[in-house]
C-alpha cells in the first residue's frame, strides 16, 4: 500500500492513544526511501535541558521502499515510538535492551500488535510470512457476506457486539496462518470488509473452522 504524510500522522495518533495512553508528544514524521531499514527514530546526541524540551529536534522516518500492509506500517511505527518513549524517559541501555523488549511484549499483548526487534529490509513480503489470524465471516440478512480479521484481544467483544448489529444473521469463525489475510487490519472495533466469492472459496475454505463458547474460541467440534 502507498503511504502519505496524513496517513502516518493519523496512524501515530492512533498508536499513541492505544499503546501509550496518549503520553507521547507530537513529533515530525518523515517518509523515506531507505532499503536497509524500515524505520528509524532520529534524535540529538547532545541536548540542553530535558529531552521533552528538545522533541522538536527529533523525527521518525518510515521507509516506503517496500510493498507493505497497514499492519506492517503500524508495527514499524510503534517500534520507533518505543525508542522515542525510552529516549524521553532517559533510559540508557543497548538499542533493543531489556526495557525495550519488555515494552514491546507488553504492547503486543495488550494491543494485538506484532512488533519485532529483527525486522529488516529484504525479508519475505508480508503475504508470504506466516501470521496467526482470527477471522470472522459475518452473514447479513440482505445476503451480503463480510470478512473481519479480529485482534486476538478483541474476539469476545467483537462476537457480542456484532450480534447486536442491525441486519445481522450469523457469524462463522476461522483460524488461519495464511499471510494473505495480512492485507486486512487486525481490528479492535466493528469493521467489515466485503469478500468476493472467489476469495471466500480459495481462502476461507482453507482456514480452520472455530467455534465461540462462553469461555473460549476453540476448534469446531
Keywords:
221 residues, alpha+beta, Zincin-like, 2 domains, six-stranded antiparallel sheet, three-stranded mixed sheet, 5 helices, 9 strands, elongated
List strands and helices in order, with pairings.
Elements: H1 5-20, E1 28-32, E2 39-42, E3 59-63, H2 70-89, H3 98-111, E4 133-140, E5 145-150, H4 155-162, E6 168-176, E7 193-194, H5 197-202, E8 208-212, E9 217-219
Description:
There is one protein chain. This protein has 5 helices and 9 strands. By secondary structure, it is of the alpha+beta class. It has 2 domains: 5-111, Zincin-like (2-Layer Sandwich), CATH 3.30.2010.10; 130-219, no CATH class. The protein has a 6-stranded antiparallel beta sheet with strand order 7-5-4-6-8-9, covered by helices on one side. A 3-stranded mixed beta sheet has the order 1-3-2, with helices on one face. Helix 1 crosses helix 2. The longest helix has 20 residues, at 70-89. The relative contact order is 0.12. The model is unreliable at 119-129 (pLDDT under 50).
Amino acid at each position: 500500500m502507498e503511504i502519505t504524510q496524513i496517513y502516518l500522522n493519523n496512524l501515530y495518533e492512533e498508536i499513541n492513544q492505544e499503546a501509550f495512553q496518549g503520553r507521547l508528544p507530537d513529533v515530525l514524521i518523515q517518509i523515506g526511501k531507505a532499503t536497509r531499514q524500515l524505520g528509524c527514530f532520529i534524535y540529538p546526541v547532545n541536548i540542553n535541558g530535558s529531552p521533552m524540551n528538545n522533541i522538536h529536534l527529533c523525527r521518525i522516518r518510515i521507509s516506503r521502499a517496500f510493498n507493505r500492509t497497514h499492519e506492517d506500517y503500524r508495527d514499524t511505527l510503534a517500534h520507533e515510538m518505543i525508542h522515542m518513549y525510552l529516549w524521553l524517559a532517559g533510559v540508557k541501555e543497548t538499542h533493543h535492551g531489556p526495557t525495550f523488549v519488555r515494552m514491546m511484549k507488553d504492547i503486543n499483548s495488550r494491543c494485538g500488535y506484532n512488533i519485532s526487534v529483527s525486522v529488516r529490509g529484504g525479508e519475505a513480503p508480508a503475504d508470504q510470512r506466516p501470521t496467526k489470524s482470527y477471522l470472522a465471516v459475518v452473514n447479513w440478512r440482505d445476503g451480503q457476506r463480510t470478512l473481519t480479521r479480529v485482534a486476538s484481544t478483541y474476539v469476545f467483544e467483537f462476537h457480542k457486539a456484532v450480534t447486536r448489529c442491525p441486519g445481522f444473521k450469523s457469524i462463522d469463525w476461522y483460524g488461519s496462518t495464511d499471510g494473505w489475510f495480512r492485507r486486512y487490519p487486525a481490528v479492535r472495533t466493528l469493521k467489515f470488509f466485503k469478500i468476493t466469492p472467489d476469495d471466500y472459496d480459495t481462502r476461507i475454505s482453507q482456514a480452520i473452522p472455530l467455534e465461540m463458547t462462553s469461555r473460549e474460541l476453540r476448534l469446531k467440534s
